[in-house]
Amino acid sequence: MISLQHITKTYPVGDGLTVLDDVCLDINEGEYVGILGKSGSGKSTMLHIMGLLDRPTSGLLSFNGRPVHALDDRELSELRGSLVGFVFQAFHLVPQLSVSENVELPLYYQRIPRRERRERAAHALEQVGMSARRGHVSSQLSGGERQRTAIARALVTEPALILADEPTGNLDSRTGGDIVALLERLHGQGRTIVMITHDREIASHLPRVVHIRDGRIEGV
Ligand SMILES: Nc1ncnc2c1ncn2[C@@H]1O[C@H](COP(=O)(O)OP(=O)(O)O)[C@@H](O)[C@H]1O
Ligand SMILES: [Mg+2]
Fold first, then answer.
1. 76: CATH
2. What gap in Å lies between CA 194 and CA 178, rounded to an integer?
3. Do residues 89 and 167 touch, judged by C-beta distance below 8 A?
4. In this structure, is residue 64 part of a structural domain?
5. Which of 3, 8, 22, 184 is deepest in the core (most CB within 10 A)?
6. Is 162 a domain residue?
7. Cα–Cα distance for residue pair 42/217, rounded to 1 Å
8. How wide is the angle at C-alpha 190 spanned by C-alphas 124 and 126, nearest 5°?
């Protein structure tokens, strides 16, 4: 479904800082893949490239066999909006908005009418066990509830791919375990999920783990 071929990323720092070095990775539809590596190893950079938030310096990225390097920024952002849902360590909710309004936001940007937004947000919140809290202002939520809300927001556009960057990083280990279990359940329903972690214990529960070190994929 998603294919990275010989991807490199060099930031214009000093003589050039190479953060990804010849990364090749294929992710199939329906997979739940963990990306495990230390802080600074290039995990977020790789996820941003996979999620079309950033472009590689060289190499080829394709979705369902379709290369994306020739797309302009507008086409790229359209594709991203329909294909990818993101979950971040720091949740990135809008604190003044309600749970439901936060989840509706991606649909708002897609100009979906209000009533349909409400219905789809309600459905997404049901999937993450947050229906009872949909009217709460998000600043009143616990960390685990915030991350559930963020996952509902990622689900609401029905993306082909969910990308989660250290989704348990701001949570205690029990709440983090609940979030991993939720992602596991969504995977069981057929969703394709890529999750970054630096936590070996969390990675040990995942069906497939890709190790990254100093911008290179190790083993396999
Ligand atoms: N926009 C940027 N400009 C320059 N350097 C960056 C940028 N983004 C990340 N880096 C550097 O790239 C390296 C890898 O970062 P990152 O992909 O965030 O790693 P990880 O998510 O594994 O911690 C780090 O050394 C970081 O400082
Ligand atoms: Mg990171």
1. 3.40.50.300
2. 17
3. yes
4. no
5. 3
6. yes
7. 10
8. 20
Number of helices (H) and strands (E), helices first, in the chain?
7, 10
Please indicate, yes or no, if residue 1 is contained in any of the structural domains. no
Query: Are 43 and 212 in contact, with CB atoms under 8 Å apart?
Result: yes
For the beta carbon of residue 131, count every other beta carbon within 10 angstroms: 15
CA 40–ligand 2 middle distance (angstroms):
7
**Which residue's alpha carbon is nearest to atom 8 within ligand 1?**
45
The amino acid at 183: L
Residue 153 placed within a domain: yes
Q: What average pLDDT values come out for the chain (220 residues) when binned by 10 residues?
A: 96 94 96 95 96 95 91 90 92 94 94 96 95 93 94 93 94 91 91 93 91 89
The whole-angstrom separation of Cα 157 and Cα 120 is: 8
| CA of residue 129 to ligand 1 center, whole Å | 34
Helix (H) or strand (E) holding 212: strand 208-213
Give how many domains the chain has, as a whole number.
1
* Maximum separation of any 2 CA atoms in the chain, in Å: 53
pLDDT of 22 reads 96
**Does residue 9's CB lie within 6 angstroms of at least one atom of ligand 1?**
no
Six-digit token string for 208 = 């497939």
> Could you list the residue range(s) of the whole structural domain that residue 200 is in?
31-55+71-218
